[in-house]
Amino acid sequence: GKLGRYPPWPGKIVNPPKDLKKPRGKKCFFVKFFGTEDHAWIKVEQLKPYHPHKEEMIKINKGKRFQQAVDAVEEFLRKTKGKDQASSHNSNEEKNRRNSSEERGKQSAGEEKRKASLSEGKLKKGTGEGKKRVSSVSSERGSKSPLKRAQDQSPRKRGRPPKDEKDLTIPESSTVKRVMTGTVAGFKWPPSVSEHCPSPECFVFSIQPAVCYQAITKKLKVCEEETGSTSIQAADSTAVNGSITPTDKKIGFLGLGLMGSGIVSNLLKMGHTVTVWNRTAEKCDLFIQEGARLGRTPAEVVSTCDITFACVSDPKAAKDLVLGPSGVLQGIRPGKCYVDMSTVDADTVTELAQVIVSRGGRFLEAPVSGNQQLSNDGMLVILAAGDRGLYEDCSSCFQAMGKTSFFLGEVGNAAKMMLIVNMVQGSFMATIAEGLTLAQVTGQSQQTLLDILNQGQLASIFLDQKCQNILQGNFKPDFYLKYIQKDLRLAIALGDSVNHPTPMAAAANEVYKRAKALDQSDNDMSAVYRAYIH
Predict the structure, then answer these.
(1) Rounded distance between C-alpha atoms, residue 419 and residue 414, angstroms
(2) What is the 3-state secondary structure (H, E, C) of 271-319?
(3) Which are the contacts of 239, defined by CB distance < 8 A and separation ≥ 6?
(4) What is the DSSP letter of 479?
(5) At residue 184, does pLDDT exceed 70?
(6) How many C-beta neighbours within 10 Å does residue 291 have?
(7) Are 334 and 327 contacting, i.e. CB atoms less than 8 angstroms apart?
(8) Do 11-82 and 418-531 come out as alike in CATH topology?
(9) Which among 210, 194, 301 has a CA at the least distance from the CA of 253?
(10) What is the CA 384 to chain-centroid distance, rounded?
(11) For the structural domain made of 11-82, what CATH number should be given?
């Protein structure tokens, strides 16, 4: 099967979670995709049997992920075949045991009849009522053979085949659970597709799994087009053509840090042609294995690609990337496009835009709101400003990496908005840490405080995750502490530039500076907690 320009992918028809409802319209099945944890409703006309199309699909799809998926199918088939052979062997043994039991039952029944006959001959004075009683006992004993008793004790209904619970159980990821309680919770889905499905082990080639994954995790709405096919449309401004069709433009990406790595991974999953570069070249290896191309310098990436994205740590890194030796500017020619996704100040991004445009290039700033997990999940929020036409050209890329995007007008607006967003987030994180430490020193349970907050108006994924980090002492970076402090500093400077007071941000900034002095820079922002306990 095929949807848009996406390659087919091997999967298996399974029963959906009870909470999911089947989409209206044409007949469809719930499919689990091999080599991934992705699931989706797929229409019958989009499915093809695995074996007849296997070789054809392998020739078309050369990617490592696809081959891993095919290997997973073959491994599953081998295990299933082994189970079937064992089941057949056990079935034959059971049949032999049943035949033996029936034979013994018949012999037992004959013996009982013989004894009953002898007893009847001896009881000449017995009445007819006595004869009936003996006959009844004989008949009852004879009819209850071991096979019959086994059938009576079985709870299974006649005509209903047993289910392989292992095959039909669908693991619920935290993402799926979140969506079920979110925008799709009000939909009414049939509890199972088994009544439509000839077998829960029916293998299919269907649409590429990343598309299905986005259909679930992005809280997208499924709509019926005039053609009758299912279209996946993001409920935001980035969805122009319904399903995510990758642009035919060559994409470059500079910077494979916490955010950049997830972004590139999703661009590749969605079928984009991507060339990557990173200051530490080893970080490129994983993406090369997944189908990306390697650029030796930023200038080379820009010169060989139509649109080049960059995501680096701070204003200095952003300027060095563009203006430094073998930098972006050296690769810019008329028509080349550059999209800076770094969180920097408005002055820096304005300067970069001017030098890019002076060479005939096109410029868009597009900082992202989120963290490493949201980047990996393709759930970032993108704030864009600058060349509106370039923003539209980046549509499929933005859909691949984020759940929504905003176009904010002229260059500099996105940088300002991003700093304000991160100022609020950083200040909130410091307040959370302050509250947890105050609870501790006053003899209150930190866990109880979290439980109370999670039941109130402040409840959020951010609150829960950061509190859990603190309670578990796990400060593995999801958003570096040094970067949120940098954003607070830039936000304070933004306020100063327009004579606007930012006392809350200034206070939070001091706490983060204290945490940095305690060697917490490369930990998660939640490690600001340690500034309060030292």
Answers:
(1) 9
(2) CCCEEEECCCHHHHHHHHHCCCEECCCHHHHHHHCCEEEECCCCHHHHH
(3) 233, 399
(4) S
(5) no
(6) 17
(7) no
(8) no
(9) 301
(10) 25
(11) 2.30.30
pLDDT tens-digit readout, 222-240: 333 333 322 223 333 333 3
Q: What is the pLDDT of residue 391?
A: 97
Nearest alpha-carbon partner for 353 in 341, 365, 366, 371: 365
Name the phi and psi angles at 98, rounded to 5: -65, -45
Q: Which CATH architecture has domain 418-531?
A: Orthogonal Bundle (1.10)
Backbone dihedral region for residue 191 (phi beyond 0: left; psi -120 to 50: alpha; all else: beta): alpha
Query: Sorting pLDDT into bands at 50, 70 and 90, what band is 521?
Result: very high
CA 228 to CA 413: how far, in whole Å? 41
Average pLDDT over residues 269-291: 95
Number of H helices, E strands in the chain: 22, 16
Residue labelled with tokens 């509890």: 191
Residue ranges of domains in the chain: 11-82, 231-411, 418-531
What are the two backbone dihedrals, phi and then psi, of residue 307, each rounded to the nearest 5 degrees? -130, 125
Q: State how beta strands 48-49 and 39-43 pair.
A: unpaired
What percent of the chain is modeled with pLDDT above 70?
A: 65
**Range of lowest pLDDT (97-106, 193-202, 343-352, 500-509):** 193-202
284-323 residue pLDDT tens: 999 999 999 999 999 999 999 999 999 999 999 999 999 9
Number of neighbours of residue 295 by Cβ within 10 angstroms: 24
- 8 Å CB contact between 375 and 400: no
**Domain 231-411 fold:** Rossmann fold (3.40.50)
Question: Is it the case that residue 49 has pLDDT exceeding 70?
Answer: yes
Tokens of 523: 């930990």
For 430-477, the DSSP string reads HHHHHHHHHHHHTT--HHHHHHHHHTSTT--HHHHHHHHHHHHT----
Query: What is the rounded distance in angstroms from the CA atom of residue 432 to the CA atom of residue 105?
Result: 75
Spatial distance between the Cα atoms of 329 and 321, rounded to a whole number of angstroms: 9
Residue 490 corresponds to which tokens in the numbers above? Answer: 């830039």
Strands 380-386 and 368-369: antiparallel
